[in-house]
Predict the structure of Methyltransferase-like protein.
Amino acid sequence: MEVEEAGGGVENAGKDEVEAEYHSHDFEWEDLRAEVESDPAFSYHLSPFPGPAASTTSPPQPSSEAWRNFHRRHASGKFFKERRYLLKEFPELPNSKDCAKILEVGCGNGSTAVSILRCHEMRKERPDFLRENQCCVGGMDFITMIFTLSAIPFAIMPSTIEQCVCVLKPGGLLLFRDYGLYDMTMLRFLPDQRVGFREYMRSDGTLSYFFTLDTVRELFHAAGLIELELEYCCVRSVNRKKNGKKMQRVWVHGKFLKPPSWR
Ligand SMILES: C[S@@+](CC[C@H](N)C(=O)[O-])C[C@H]1O[C@@H](n2cnc3c(N)ncnc32)[C@H](O)[C@@H]1O
């Protein structure tokens, strides 16, 4: 299901996840929360993070370069599998009208885009690709942010979302999926990998933030979006390559509307 790096894996939607139920609730997030918060071994994940004055480390820098290096190292494109399950999570994508414009923010090697393209190809449609400067203000029907916001420093998430909302049409949808608080990959980070509250840096310099529903709600509401769907997706799976080790995955699924009356 997942390819791991030292100190925290990068999301990799493999076969097991594709086979999982998409709005899955294998376990209750509140039960996981109680378990984690009462375990002294995880206490360092819960403590407030010292502010810049108290901290000896500098705050995380925008990690675009670290991600560029990451994609160079995984240029074969095998690291991130196609995210076909997203077409079930977000049925608007396969059912969108012919000329719908979709912007994928932080597309990586195209795991999400390829799934969407394949589905339109099967319907014998020929998608057009927009150039960077064609993502005009108010021009997009859909924006997908799939495991991208967590890769951006928490401090610049509000301005990043504002820029996304700017290119979305009034009445358009922002489709969101990302790491949830207490996902297995968060609990594996070591104390010295913490770079902020619920924010971690992998050994290669890439960042990962873990969201609660409230954090996601606050970020998108502050940008003026209306919440249509927001929930934890809690999936229990077994890693057959690692002695049948049980894995508790937590993702946040969200769908937000730009008000049709937006001016
Ligand atoms: C975990 S990957 C997810 C990739 C892809 N969305 C997917 O579903 O496979 C995070 C992505 O965020 C992108 N990213 C990180 N910082 C960024 C930034 N400041 N601006 C745009 N993209 C960024 C990275 O290049 C990387 O492709």
